[in-house]
């Protein structure tokens, strides 16, 4: 069981999950725990010879009942590939899986905030290469959704809605659009190739989305990650986080959107969180969002 | 005509020598949008959900 300690100086919780120190770390392909269990082979986390999408409680959870949840979402039973290479109907099905888990975990009394995310690449600490994501059910409201709510209060409107209007009006940082979703590098991006995937209509969460919107959300996400992979012609590491309304008793505002934080600033150089970022909380960027957007927009156009 | 009822679902978790399989709870299979869900319990008690695209699901 993890221990929570409140860091008074930072005003935030710190989670001590010391059992995670021993979690599986970059196993050989033959010992991937996210593969299906082959006849005669070692038992994996999914003891079936084939599956489409699997969700299970994390063996090394940061959170677990009665203080939250930690789940693994395996996108496919195929070891190779990525979210980008999933068939479109599988990516669409994944949106429904996310929706289901948000609904079910969010209904729990010990879950205040559900975050669906994916860490891709060893550059962001991936320990298993099989295509997968994770879901945390936080037993408290973490700082980022707190700040998003505070921004709504400060400006007196849904800030993601306002930012989307602004990005569409400006146009220079738009990467991709379809009938329900807009993808752009935000005006004040912190990472060189940061991108936000935003529903055009105000939707607090996946639960509010129409089936068509879920399909178009999957299309937009795949277009972006395919563009990422094409940008430097290499698998593009990123952290992807699905932002939705909190689910706890003190439910606050929220606007469904997906944020990507890629650490690459060039094909072979990483952005590190160093003195200014860690000591002062201020990002120093090496690129302008408009220039990154132009390059990434071209890569997406070539990839879709 | 075969009137013989299907064999009951059984847990293979404790069968010595058998490859471990999760307990299947077929009564909890459900449809959700375009996916169907079957719920299982792994040997160590952790939940496992398998999602399958339902061709008849909501569009």
SSE map:
The complex is a heterodimer of chains A (304) and B (59).
Chain A: E1 3-7, E2 12-16, E3 53-57, E4 69-74, H1 88-106, E5 113-120, E6 132-138, H2 143-155, H3 159-170, E7 174-177, E8 181-184, E9 195-199, H4 211-231, E10 238-243, E11 257-261, H5 275-280, H6 289-303
Antiparallel strand pairs in A: 1-2, 3-4, 4-6, 5-6, 5-10, 7-8, 8-9, 9-11, 10-11
Helix pairs in contact in A: 1-4, 4-6
Chain B: E1 23-24, E2 30-32, E3 35-41, E4 47-53
Antiparallel strand pairs in B: 1-3, 2-3, 3-4
Range of helix content of chain A: 25-40%
Pair with the biggest interface:
A-B, 25 and 20 residues
- Number of separate strands of chain A: 11
Q: What average pLDDT do the residues of chain A reach?
A: 94
What would your notes on this structure say?
The complex is a heterodimer of chains A (about 300) and B (about 60). With about 300 residues, chain A is of the alpha+beta class. Chain A has one domain (about 25-304): HIT family, subunit A. Chain A has six helices and eleven strands. Chain A has helices at about 90-105, 145-155, 160-170, 210-230, 275-280, 290-304, and strands at about 5, 10-15, 55, 70-75, 115-120, 130-140, 175, 180-185, 195-200, 240-245, 255-260. Chain A has a nine-stranded antiparallel sheet, with helices on both faces. In chain A, strands 1-2 form a two-stranded antiparallel ribbon. In chain A, strand 7 and strand 8 (about 180-185) form a beta hairpin. The longest helix of chain A is centred in the last third of the chain and has 21 residues, at about 210-230. Chain A is globular, with a radius of gyration of 19 Å. The N and C termini of chain A lie far apart (about 45 Å). The mean pLDDT of chain A is about 95. Helix content of chain B is about 0%, strand content about 30%. Chain B has strands spanning about 25, 30, 35-40, 45-55. In chain B, strands 1, 2, 3 and 4 form a four-stranded antiparallel sheet that branches. The N and C termini of chain B lie far apart (about 40 Å). The model of chain B is unreliable at about 1-20 (pLDDT under 50). At the A-B interface, strand 3, helix 1 and helix 4 of A face strand 4 of B. Strand 3 of chain A pairs antiparallel with strand 4 of chain B, so a sheet runs across the interface.
């Amino acid at each position: 069981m993890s221990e929570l300690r409140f860091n008074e100086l930072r005003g935030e919780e710190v989670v001590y999950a010391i059992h995670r120190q021993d979690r599986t770390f970059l196993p050989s392909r033959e010992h991937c725990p996210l593969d299906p269990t082959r006849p005669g082979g070692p038992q994996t986390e999914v003891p079936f010879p084939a599956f489409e999408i699997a969700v299970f409680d994390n063996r090394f959870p940061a959170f677990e009942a009665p203080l939250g949840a930690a789940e693994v979402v395996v996108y496919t039973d195929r070891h190779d590939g990525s979210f980008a290479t999933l068939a479109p109907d599988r990516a669409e099905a994944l949106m429904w899986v996310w929706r289901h888990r948000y609904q079910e975990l969010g209904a729990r009394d010990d879950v205040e905030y559900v975050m669906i995310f994916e860490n891709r690449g060893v550059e962001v600490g991936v320990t298993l290469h099989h295509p997968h994501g994770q879901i945390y059910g936080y037993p408290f409201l973490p700082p980022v959704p707190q700040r998003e709510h505070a921004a709504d209060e400060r400006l007196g409107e849904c800030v993601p809605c306002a930012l989307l209007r602004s990005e569409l009006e400006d146009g220079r940082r738009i990467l991709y659009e379809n009938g329900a979703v807009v993808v752009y590098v935000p005006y004040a991006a912190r990472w060189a190739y940061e991108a936000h995937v935003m529903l055009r209509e105000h939707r607090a969460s996946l639960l509010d989305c129409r089936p068509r919107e879920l399909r178009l959300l999957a299309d937009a996400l795949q277009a972006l990650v395919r563009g990422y992979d094409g940008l430097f012609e290499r698998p593009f590491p990123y952290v992807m986080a699905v932002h939705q309304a909190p689910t706890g008793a003190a439910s606050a505002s929220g606007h469904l959107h997906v944020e990507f934080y890629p650490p690459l600033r060039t094909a072979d150089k990483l952005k590190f969180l160093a003195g200014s970022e860690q000591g002062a909380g201020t990002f120093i960027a090496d690129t302008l969002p408009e220039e990154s957007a132009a390059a990434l927009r071209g890569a997406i156009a070539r990839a879709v | 005509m075969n009137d013989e009822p299907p064999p009951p679902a059984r847990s293979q978790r404790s069968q010595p020598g058998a490859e471990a399989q999760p307990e299947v709870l077929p009564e909890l299979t459900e449809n959700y949008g375009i996916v169907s869900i079957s719920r299982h319990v792994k040997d160590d008690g952790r939940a496992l959900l398998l999602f399958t695209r339902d061709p008849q699901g909501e569009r």
